[in-house]
Amino acid sequence: MTLRRTSAYGASGLVLAVCTVFAWQNATAAQNCDAAATPGVNWHECDKKLLILEGQDLSGANLFGVDFTSTDLRNSNLLAANLEKATLVRASLADSTAKGARFDRIEAYRTDFSRMDAQGAVFASAGNTALKFPGRQSDQC
Predict the structure, then answer these.
(1) What is the pLDDT of residues 43-97, one digit of tens each?
(2) Long-range contacts: 91-98, Cβ < 8 Å, 24+?
(3) How many H helices and E strands in the chain?
(4) Which of 23, 55, 59, 81 lies at a CB distance of 3.0 to 4.6 Å from 75, suitable for a disulfide?
(5) Within the chain, what is the greatest distance between any pair of CA atoms?
(6) CB–CB of 121/139 below 8 Å?
(7) What three-state secondary structure class fits 97?
(8) How confident is the model at residue 139 (pLDDT cuts 50, 70, 90)?
């Protein structure tokens, strides 16, 4: 009988340890919203409204679902960044580099994309019926 109890306690202790590790990993992922703007940063679904991030290097960053409403991203490096499902309402990406970036399903009303270098960028199903890139002959990248 004692051996069975020890076994049961050992198994439940193992389950508790595994659950603790998963909870710690989830808490660590949530803390990425406080991370500085650096290449490759993971701001998945973070709130980055009303910030001045002018000139920051966010190349290769995971910006999936980030809310950049009214955020200044002018002169930023968004090379190969993933901005899928990001909210860019009234944000400014003027003079930024976004070569190869993903802008799939973004919400971008009154967003400034002027002089943005977006060669090879993808804007599939963007939530704006009139994406305009002033200074470009075509609205396709």
Answers:
(1) 999 999 999 999 999 999 999 999 999 999 999 999 999 999 999 999 999 999 9
(2) none
(3) 1, 0
(4) 55
(5) 81
(6) no
(7) strand
(8) very low
CB 126 within 8 A of CB 103: yes
Beta-bridge mates of residue 112:
92
User: Which token pair is 79?
Assistant: 């090379």
Asked whether 81 and 99 are in contact (CB, 8 A), the reply is no
Which amino acid is located at 74 in the chain? R
Q: Which residue's structure tokens are 């305009």? A: 132
> 104-137: per-residue pLDDT in tens?
999 999 999 999 999 999 999 876 644 556 655 4
CB of 60 closer than 8 Å to CB of 40: yes
At residue 116, the pLDDT reads 98
How many angstroms separate the Cα of 76 from the Cα of each of 3, 59, 109, 137? 63, 9, 19, 23
- What is the full DSSP assignment across 15-78? HHHHHHHHHHHHHHHHGGGGS-S-TT-B-TT-B-TT-B-TT-B-TT-B-TT-B-TT-B-TT-B-
